[in-house]
Each structure stands twice: as C-alpha cells, then as structure tokens.
Amino acid sequence: MMSLVCLSLRLRAAGCHGSRRSVATVVSGNKTASLVRQRLQMEVQEMRSVLSGFRPGLLVLQVGDRADSNLYISAKLRAAAQIGIDAKHLRLPSSATQDQVLQSVLSINADPAVHGLIVQLPLDSVNPMDPERITNAVSPEKDVDGLSCINAGKLSRGDLKDCFIPCTPNGCMELIRQTGVSVAGKQAVVIGRSKIVGAPMHDLLLWSNATVTTCHSKTLDLPEQVGRADILVVGAGRAEMVRGDWLKEGAVVIDCGINHIPDERKLSGHRVVGDVHFASASQRAGFITPVPGGVGPMTVAMLMENTVQSARHFLLKIQAGG
Amino acid sequence: MMSLVCLSLRLRAAGCHGSRRSVATVVSGNKTASLVRQRLQMEVQEMRSVLSGFRPGLLVLQVGDRADSNLYISAKLRAAAQIGIDAKHLRLPSSATQDQVLQSVLSINADPAVHGLIVQLPLDSVNPMDPERITNAVSPEKDVDGLSCINAGKLSRGDLKDCFIPCTPNGCMELIRQTGVSVAGKQAVVIGRSKIVGAPMHDLLLWSNATVTTCHSKTLDLPEQVGRADILVVGAGRAEMVRGDWLKEGAVVIDCGINHIPDERKLSGHRVVGDVHFASASQRAGFITPVPGGVGPMTVAMLMENTVQSARHFLLKIQAGG
C-alpha cells in the first residue's frame, strides 16, 4: 500500500518531468518515522487482541551514566511507550566488571518477557570491556540492533528474511522506498564501511539488486565515484564533505551524518549538519534527506520495528505451540 | 619475504614499462599453490618439533556418494597427506537423516584431534536436508571452509584476523599478492555475490582498502563497470562471459569460473573454460589467471592453510595452558 508521504513525493517528482529540476524533493525522516510508529502502534494493538495482556518487551542495558547515552535512551524509551512496547532500562554502575555485564546479558536472554535487548554503546566503565564480546553475547533472536556476528553474517550473505537489520541502514532503505525510486539495477554508492551504517547499507542495497560501490577513507577519486551514483548513502562522519557539484543530476541522496560545526548565530554556538553540503546538493539531487530530521528519527523508528518483529515471531511460536 | 614466483612476475611486469603491453602475464595457480603447500609442510614439521607426535587434523564429512564429490574429496585428502595433515573422510549413507548428520557434526566438534571440519556440499541424501543449518552447526573454531554465519559476519565487518576466510576468495587474494600489484586505493570490481566466492571476495578487497563495486545478474551496464576495474574478480558461472575489449588496459584479472563447453577436438567432447574469454582478455590485461590451473588449485591450498591455522591456534592454547 502506498503511503500518503510516498504518494505526495511521487506527485512532486512527476511535476518536474520534462524540465530541469532545480531543487530536490526533501524526504522527511520525521514524517516517515511518524508513519512507521503509527503502523507499529496498530500492530501492537492487534497483538494484544490476539493474546490478552501481551506487550512486546524491549530492554536497554546501560553501563555507567554518560549524558549523551542518557539522551539517546530517553528517546528510545519514549518512542517505545508511545507504540505500546513495554520498555525497560537497566543501568549497571560504571564499577561493573565485564563478567557482571555478560551475566546480565545472559539473564535477559533467558527472560521470555523481553523480545529485544540492546546494549547501549559506548560502555562507560572503569573496568576493561570488550564491546564485541558483549554485543555477541546478546541472543541473535533478541538482537534488535542487528549488531551480532550472526545477524551481520546472514545480512551480508543475503539471508535478509532471517535476521535483524541494523536500524540506521534499515531506516535509509525505508526513506529510499518513500521516494518511489526503484533500487534494482541502479548504481548505488555507499560512503563508509562501519559496522552500524556503511557495511550493512552495502548489503541491503546489494540484495535489493543495485550495483553497489563502497567508498571509504582510502578511496582516491571520491567525487568521480559519487558522480556515478543514482542512489548515494553517506555515512562518512565528515561535516558537509559531499558537495553538490559532485552529484549526478537527479540522484537520491541519503545523509547519515550528524556533525556539530561552530555557528556564532546560534545560542549554543554550534549547529548540526550532515556529511552532505545540503544547500548545494539540493540544487542537483532529485531527492535528499535533511539533517536534522532525516535519517536520525528513522533509526529509533526502525529499532521499534525490529522489536515488534521479534515479538511477532515470539507470538507465532506460542501459537504454533513451540 | 617476496617469493620467487612473485619476483619473476614483477620482473616480467617491469619489462613492459613504457611500451604498450600486448600479452598479459599469466599468474599460475599451480605454481602458487605448490609454494603454499611447501610453506605449510614446513610449518607442520615445526609443530611436530614443538609437540612430539602432533599433527593438524582435518575431517571431511560426506553424505551419500556423488561422483564429483568423491573426486573433490580425494584431491583434498591427497593435498592434506602431502603436507602432513592427518585427514579423515567420514561418509554417511544417503539414507542418513538430518538429525544424524547434525549429531555427527556435534561429535566431531567435540573431538580435540580434529582442527578443521568441512561438510562436503551438496548433501546427497534421500531425506530433506537444510544445508545452512548443518553448515552453521560446525563449530566456528573448526569451520575451515569459512561458511558459517559467524565467520561470514566477522569477515563482512572487517574482523579478518578473527575468522576463517572462505578458500576460493582467499586463494584469489594470494594470486593478486603474487602479481605485486597493491590493492589499497584501487578500483576493484567483483562479478557475483555468492556465499563462497563473490560476497567474501568483496569483503577481502574492501578490507584491503580497495574501492569495491559488486556486479551481478541484475547489473545493467556490466561492460562499463568492468572497464573501470584495476582489479577484476569474476565468479559469475557463465562461460567466457567477460570479453577482452571490456577490460581496462593492464588490469589484474582473476577468473573463478569452471565451465564445460562442447569441443569436438577433445576426446571427452568438451573442454573447461573460465568466466573470462582468455584469448581476448590476455591481449589487454596486465595479469590474468588461466582456467584450469588458476584459482582452482588455490582453493585446495587455502583449505590446507586454514586447517594449519586452526591447528596453530589449538597449539597456542595448549601452550598457554588453556
């Protein structure tokens, strides 16, 4: 079913046919995330009608008390509450040892009321911690961040139906879908190869049948590579690095960057920009996501999507008597 | 240390400087595999001097009795014996059930004398089998084929030091190293996205810092994509698909294809060709692997490499008292 946002984007795109496009259509993550949340809210209500009193359960495990982590966790808990997910926050003190953190993960793995478990990174502990080991201790069936090796392996080898997809690239795919531009056969370019953005983004575009090029800090001819992209996803972590004149006319541009740059006109003394230079890029792209209000809100929405998906599997298992 | 083959390839390449290259240097998999086997043989002898009587152990688990599987298994057992690996072949009847196969895998996982376990595919059984499930039952520490989700996940996310790399792409990397051409910053193109060739090949080239493009059956402009490749790896499964005039002058061309085409001049009525049209490609490439005698022999050599690597880990653990 075509959503209203999608329909409106298509109509705007259609209106530009035949004439040179001068300003890109802005793809709003705020609007798209809101639609996703509405859909999930209805789905949770439906689950409750199937099994009285049932609620999808999400647990956020935090070590320590970083201010930025606290902000992110609040946003997640708020979004979950709005949808009807039973979200809990477990905070271990920064004096916790790795063994204690692992013990907590294992006991949450065994709790049937929790369908999604995320470990808030970075771990703020006075003790040595191996984040990889802790992330991989999360049961693959509850790993709604999609960061464990097993989920990464399935995604990278094309088993998309049988894994949790990391939230940021999953949100990017949803935004690309909203443009109405088909991915199959297109030239896609991903800048960045991180575990949470670039690498899984490559996988998603590849298994949606795009021809995918991955660029990174060692790429020598970045503007030329970018100029070939029908679909460009940027997760480079460098403020306004991608300039408008690099882009292919009409490209879909998805910006995962969140960078703070000095701005004396702001009370805070800084403003948030993406990895793409928005002003010039929007003169050349066909579709572009803003920063803020683009990919950011989608990440939290997709975490909710994965949690509801996990709860759905749990319910199906119960119904099958398994 | 630069090997003799590598040095000789470099000298040949250097001789072409300044003039238009007319015939590519052929990168022999037979020679390179032989050097790998010699190195491994010495390493196994060294292990035996460290722990008297110790031998790396490899087990090939087969279900049924396919003639082609029997041939491949013989080649593996022969190569293992030559190096000093204790290789065993366990054949279950085609009447075996999936549970019986899984039970065998679990009992081999627990056997400390086996450092590498491979399940020969396809499984030739009269009963329904889920090859994914069986492959993933192999302990990640013994998965010398590198086909389990966990090893695929680590490779795809760049943890190359902590995983087994699938043998065919690992062999391709060894052949690329033999050319002396550096990978970092180069444009690499991979044709194919299979679990055993294309997808892990992408990962290896990416984490060697190439800018990598993955092409496949849905790629619309394959000749154009191929024409940009400094390094081209082809695992498409289509006889002589890549033509010489598609190539960038001087490219490194690695051909993973093994295809049988009719040839009435042969007694067998057919001959084996790769996915690259060798005659035309060798007029334009800088380096090219032949078929047969290119990637093929490297696959078995790299299986031995992984088995010896696994045994090395085992020995280190024993020495550490773990």
Roughly what is the average pLDDT of chain A, rounded to an integer?
94
Considering residues with a beta carbon less than 8 A from a beta carbon on another chain, report the largest interface and each chain's count. Answer: A-B, 33 and 33 residues
CATH class division of one domain in chain A: Alpha Beta
CA distance, first residue to last residue of chain A:
32 Å
Query: Please, what is the oligomeric state?
Result: homodimer
Report a brief summary of the structure.
Chains A, B: Homodimer. The structure is a homodimer of 322-residue chains. With 322 residues, chain A is an alpha/beta fold.
Structure description:
- 2 copies of one chain form a homodimer.
- The first copy, chain A, is α/β, with parallel strands linked by helices and 322 residues long.
- Among the domains of chain A are: 55-145, 3-Layer(aba) Sandwich (Rossmann fold), CATH 3.40.50.10860; 166-296, 3-Layer(aba) Sandwich (Rossmann fold), CATH 3.40.50.720.
- Helix content of chain A is 42%, strand content 15%.
- The first copy, chain A, is built from 11 helices and 11 strands.
- Chain A has a 6-stranded parallel sheet with strand order 1-11-8-7-5-6. Chain A has a 3-stranded parallel sheet with strand order 3-2-4, with helices on both faces. Chain A has a two-stranded antiparallel sheet with strand order 9-10.
- In chain A, strand 9 (259-262) and strand 10 form a beta hairpin.
- In chain A, helix 7 (167-179) packs across helix 11 (295-319).
- The radius of gyration of chain A is 20 Å and the shape is globular.
- The A-B interface holds A 132, 148-159, 184-185, 193, 195, 199, 202-203, 206, 209, 211-216, 218-221, 225 and B 132, 148-159, 184-185, 193, 195, 199, 202-203, 206, 209, 211-216, 218-221, 225.
